[in-house]
Amino acid sequence: MEPVPGEDKLNELMARVNKAQEAYKGLNQATIDSIFKAVSIAAGNERIKLAEMAVAETGIGIVEDKVIKNHYASEIIYNKVGAVS
């Protein structure tokens, strides 16, 4: 992840976040569930790369442990929450 180059860029990014949040608030539950599933699958598919990036960026942790954590966060939590909805 690249650092934010300045306050103007941060303000621009926050405006985009706020716009996306407003759009998201108008979605129905089926659409939100579909987004949640897609994000979960994408995170699960990239769990090794994400673990490597986290260790490289922070210098903290063990890649293999982060892979397990990413798997849990993406697939297992999705399955638990998905069973409720």
Description:
The chain is mainly α and 85 residues long. The protein has a domain at 29-84. Helix content is 82%, strand content 0%. The protein is flat. It comes from Kipferlia bialata. One of its GO terms (molecular function) is oxidoreductase activity. This is Aldehyde dehydrogenase domain-containing protein. InterPro entries: Ald_DH/histidinol_DH (IPR016161), Ald_DH_N (IPR016162).
Derived structural class: mainly alpha
Reported for the largest beta sheet, the result is:
none
Number of strands: 0
Q: Can you give the helix content as a percent range? A: over 70%
Q: In what range is the share of β-strand residues?
A: under 5%
The average pLDDT score comes to 91
Task: Give the H and E element order.
Answer: HHHH
Organism: Kipferlia bialata
GO molecular function: oxidoreductase activity
Protein name: Aldehyde dehydrogenase domain-containing protein
Q: Layout of helices and strands, plus pairs?
A:
Elements: H1 7-25, H2 29-45, H3 47-58, H4 63-84
Helix pairs in contact: 2-4, 3-4
Structure described in brief:
With 85 residues, this protein is an all-alpha fold. It has four helices and no strands.
Considering the chains and any ligands shown, give keywords for the structure.
single chain, 85 residues, mainly alpha, 4 helices, 82% helix, flat, Ald_DH/histidinol_DH, oxidoreductase activity
